Write a sequence for this structure.
């Protein structure tokens, strides 16, 4: 059983390896991965060792092998379809960002520190507002939330992002669970109650703000 | 010198202690803090030990003392004023959330897992769009970004949140540095170049999505 704190570091390792791999580096060391991600080389080695014996002591990891291995561990060697519920301010920001992070922006180089695996894609959005239902926003079709069950099955949605107001979040989560969604990224400031086999991440942008406050006095 | 990975855990410890403290619990143990935050009790003790000797072995921490100590460490025993640059989709979502997280929403109980210290407040926003400048949004006045230097001084802004498009981010960061801002929360997918005494956090909502992909196959 892999601790969640490790699972949260894996995408950073993947990004780091992706960066070295794209620059044609064949071997990547734990100190390079540590420097890129901000974790200690010891932490890097300890984390990766949970998944197998793939480093060479004193040398490092085969970049191509590690790149594939991390994608495999994260389930990203296949297409993973994501749905978004709530096309308000936050929902629209997520879709815009989704597009920019993949395509880059004219005149601005895509930053390797922000790459998103191309297999992980938001492919549908759901809302209740009649003004938003039936349109396409940032290349994503918007359906009525009544279609959540049907579209989840049809499109094979596996992860749902909840960007709805707090008072709708529990009801929407319930629909997602009924639809067989196993992983939810929730932005609404409410504690969702779900079955044990459903993973909920509660995203909180203010936490980083609170950590930053530390640096105003240190 | 406190490692950044520890600084990122501190706001969670503060929230946990706040929760126990509000429920009139006088002593809080490292295992209770660990269970609340998801970190191991050993990690909790190790982190807190970096700041002093305040636990009693086999008993725990004085909740009131720890609550104050954590606020002190995070610089949150004084008012810390935050500015927001970019009142687009993301900026508006942050201001909405700012209001909801503090006030709660009618009919929905504020979740202790989402509390924000009341001393940390977004007090001003900046934009270039004439439609947005000069209005008040979610109780926050919106100024033109040309006024960033002046307002930062006048309002004592210490942290700036950047929710502008990627091609404006570097220029805005430069203005913030000139204004004496020491901590920046950047959402734009570009790598900001700043002096060594300025701390930049690069927020990335997609990272959690990538970690969640792990749970679709495990
Ligand atoms: N965690 C954080 O750091 C953070 C930051 C910003 C926003 N938020 C939260 O994200 C959520 C969205 O914020 P916002 O500013 O975009 O809100 P918003 O009001 O702009 O958007 C909410 C959208 O959800 C839709 N909606 C409402 N009920 C629905 C339902 N039952 N099914 C489907 N769609 C529904 C609305 O029509 C609207 O389009 C809020 O809960 C907010 O508190 C969290
Ligand atoms: N890191 C993440 O996970 C994540 C998620 C969502 C959005 N984003 C990023 O956040 C940023 C904002 O996204 P959005 O959807 O809200 O964009 P948006 O286009 O809706 O809003 C941008 C706002 O910035 C203003 N602006 C532009 N140039 C400015 C300048 N020089 N000074 C002040 N204001 C200026 C615009 O007038 C507009 O109001 C983008 O860079 C986006 O990629 C990141």
């Amino acid at each position: 059983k892999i601790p969640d704190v490790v699972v949260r570091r894996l995408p950073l390792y993947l990004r780091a390896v992706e960066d070295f791999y794209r620059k044609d580096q064949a071997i990547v060391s734990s100190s390079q991965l540590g420097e890129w991600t901000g974790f200690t080389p010891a932490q890097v080695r300890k984390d990766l060792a949970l998944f197998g014996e793939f480093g060479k002591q004193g040398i490092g990891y085969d970049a191509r092998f590690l790149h594939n291995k991390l994608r495999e561990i994260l389930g990203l060697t296949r297409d993973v379809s994501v749905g978004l519920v709530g096309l308000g301010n936050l929902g629209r920001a997520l879709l815009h960002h989704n597009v920019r992070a993949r395509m880059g922006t004219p005149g601005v180089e895509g930053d390797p520190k922000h790459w998103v695996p191309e297999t992980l894609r938001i492919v549908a959005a759901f809302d209740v507002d009649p003004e938003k239902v039936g349109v396409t926003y940032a290349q994503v079709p918007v359906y009525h939330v009544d279609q959540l069950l049907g579209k989840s099955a049809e499109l094979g949605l596996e992860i749902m992002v909840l960007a709805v107001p707090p008072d709708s979040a529990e009801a929407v989560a319930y629909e997602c669970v009924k639809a067989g969604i196993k992983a939810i990224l929730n932005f609404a400031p409410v504690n969702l109650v779900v079955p044990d086999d459903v993973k909920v991440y509660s995203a909180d942008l203010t936490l980083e703000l609170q950590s930053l406050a530390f640096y105003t006095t240190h």
